[in-house]
Amino acid sequence: MEPALQRRIQRYGWDKAASYYEASWIMQLKPAQDLLLQMADLQEAEKVLDSACGTGLVSFKAREKVTDKGFVWGTDISEKMVEIASATAQNKKISGIKFERMDAEELTMESSFFDVAICALGLMYVPDPLKALKEMLRVLKPGGRAAAAVWGQRGHCGWAEIFEIVDKRVASEVCPMFFNLGNPDMLLLTFRAAGYTRIRDERLSTILQYDTAEQACGAAFAGGPLALAYNKFSAEEKQEVHKEYLLSIERYKRGEGYEVPGEFVIALGIK
Ligand SMILES: C[S@@+](CC[C@H](N)C(=O)[O-])C[C@H]1O[C@@H](n2cnc3c(N)ncnc32)[C@H](O)[C@@H]1O
């Protein structure tokens, strides 16, 4: 797919998902975000980049860790995500943090500026993740740390059929390379290719818990990367995709809800 088209699908898709995002994903992504922060090992007074920051779930936790003496700069391709993150900072009167719309592949910051660069569950959506990791490397000071989390192997993510269910109804694939970085060693090798040293990674199994079928469908369609395509579906098509998706996760049904397995990979590298 044309990178420019992929970028537009992501940008406007996440604009549509932004207001549903936290309700859908805050608990489900927490294990990966927590491990990423643990591996990044943020210290007081550090300057942190959070690339593809979304509503700032990780940025605000990073801000706590670097204290008033530090600084966090969150960037995301979606205007709406950036607006929500900025409004949270303003409403909660949190200083030492700012958010800006920016493409992960083209950071506008000067080189050697940050102590740490993180990217939580963002690289799967970027047309060229290697370029995004190189940009994170560029803006890091020598010795600086980069940490990124992605979804793991397709076969370990029970909800993976969602992409085919939507893709067959739209003209172009929504997330063509979604599971690529989750393949064995792929994230690690991409860190190496970007120029990082002392790289290590960890794989984390998780369970996505949904109390109801409605909750499972809401997270899958309204609050995530498929939101742009989903919003264009007729009421009838929406019913159809819900039915197909629920059938694809049927084996994980527990009572009224679902417990869908998932996997994350988190890598750390040094400049
Ligand atoms: C699953 S959300 C993760 C948000 C946040 N990091 C978190 O952990 O909650 C993915 C985010 O990647 C952003 N994104 C997608 N493509 C991007 C790109 N090329 N540059 C910057 N951000 C991008 C989306 O707008 C979305 O906010």
Explain what the structure shows.
The chain has a single domain, classed as Rossmann fold (3-Layer(aba) Sandwich), CATH 3.40.50. Helix 1 runs parallel beside helix 2 (57-66), helix 1 runs parallel beside helix 3 and helix 4 (129-139) packs across helix 6 (186-194). Strand 4 (114-120), helix 4 (129-139) and strand 5 form a beta-alpha-beta unit. The two termini are 31 Å apart. The chain contains nine helices and eight strands. The chain has helices at 3-40, 57-66, 79-91, 129-139, 162-167, 186-194, 213-222, 227-232, 235-248, and strands spanning 47-51, 71-76, 97-101, 114-120, 140-151, 197-210, 253-254, 257-270. The structure holds S-adenosylmethionine. S-adenosylmethionine is lined by residues 7, 10, 14, 29, 33, 52-54, 57-58, 76-78, 81, 103-105, 120-122, 125-126. S-adenosylmethionine binds next to helix 1 and helix 2.
